[in-house]
Design goal:
By secondary structure, chain A is an alpha/beta fold. Chain A contains 9 helices and 14 strands. Chain B has a 6-stranded parallel sheet, with helices on both faces. The radius of gyration of chain B is 18 Å and the shape is globular. The chains are: A alpha/beta, B alpha/beta. The structure holds zinc ion (ZN).
Amino acid sequence: MTRNLLSGICLLLSLTAAAAEFSPDVRPGAGVTEQRLLSDYFAPLADTAMDSEVFVLDSGVPGAVGLMIGGTHGNELAGQVAALLAVENVTAIRGKLVVIPYVNRSAMSMPDSRNAVTRHHRIESRSGERYLPYGDRRTDPADQGVPDPGRYTNPPGYTLENGAESRNLNRTYPGKADGTPTERLAWAVMQLVRAEAIDFALDMHEADTPERKPTGEADYRPGGNRRLAYTLVAHPRGLETAAFALLEMDADTGISMKLEESNSTYRGLSHIEIGDNSPAVSFLSESPNPGQDRWRDDPDVVSDTRYPLTHRAGLHLRLFKHLADAHGDATGKRLEMRGIPEYEELMAGPIGRFLN
Amino acid sequence: MKNRVRRILLALVLCVAVSGAALADGVVLTPFGQSPDAMMVRVVLKKLGVDGRLDKLLEADGLQGEQVLITVVAGSSKGLGEAGIDKDAEIARMNSVVAAARQAGMKTLVMHIGGKGRRGTLTDLFIVEAVPMADKLLVVEGGDFDGLFTRLAQEADVEMIPAPSVRETSGPLEAILTEWGVLP
Ligand SMILES: [Zn+2]
């Protein structure tokens, strides 16, 4: 009896200690030919909060293999939604598209700790009411299982002063098979990149908007050149492809983005490590998310008038298409897709019109 | 006999000169401030059919008989760090490259394509050095939001050509390279 009571208490305790599980709501379109899990590429992830769904859109025609990564950071909605737009609308007609909409599922299980943005955002989809989840930047400490170190030295040996960065997926590349759960997650992504023979990869992010709290002062700050939004970071091998894609982006969407090259001394980020540890050419895009502006009281991450989700998710999606085309022009290996919403169409909105 | 040898020699010299000219692709590019913006310009040129050679750390002795030097000004502390040089070394490099280009009879085009986003203390420092080096100046909208380029161009008596976007530098570039003999 006492034993039963004790084990009951233990069970209860373990349940409360366990992280809230996040089950992504992805509604695959006809173009999805196979659904997999990251644990298919790295078995130790199976049955853990770090495992995540992978969607394969295979044309069956030889060509390039592209990878779209959303949800590296749970509080960066547009990359996740760009991935959903691909999974729910696109069909590959040459080559293969691999999509991970919520790569850090654990981070999605946490509420946004930076700006306390609402957890679920209601939209009207093709099939009615639907909610887009909004998570946190890093892995849930409960899923990480070990306390944050004082300082974090990542797999490539780069040391970050903030130990919590050990739970930031985009500081743990190229991962470590016997590392922390977040390092294993990065390792699983690398295993996928190698197993699927990915030719090019885009890791989709968001940053704070170029706007500052309206105070009437001019928003020009000499030396304030640190704006991340509207940036495409390219691995050195992909710099020229990125430049071509950005010119096409401008022509197609009117969005002019800044080109940056991976910094080979700041290790652990996807754009440098995927490119350095596999034959894939890697890129990272940043859109402007009002939800990441600390000065906003009640940011609307879906329908903000200047930075609506249609604009931000459209940016990543169209950019991916132009990277695919530019990569094809450069290598002769093409990924061709049908069903990608045009940018104008997307901007006419609302976003739910493009989701199942 | 002597005449014949002379004629053969002359033909040889001509051949070398012609093939030399064909090898020189007309344009060499280098960043001023080590930002990747020079790659954007290289791609705009490529679309015009000009295969500009991009050398991030072009030195005076690295000119290969090109007709035009294009330098794209934008300061990147990250880029300078990667290259292992500081701002003074970058300015010295550009001074010597431009002097050598002038001596070789080349034209120098200075470009700024990053708009307002690529302005800041470091970039402004390079801009002040770059504008007087230019035979022409091509600036994408926003880059001159405070009139810095206009003022420097007036002081140095350099023609400044505006462009609405990076993509739309294509038209002015085509016109400039035609005027300077790179494009027919
Ligand atoms: Zn991010």
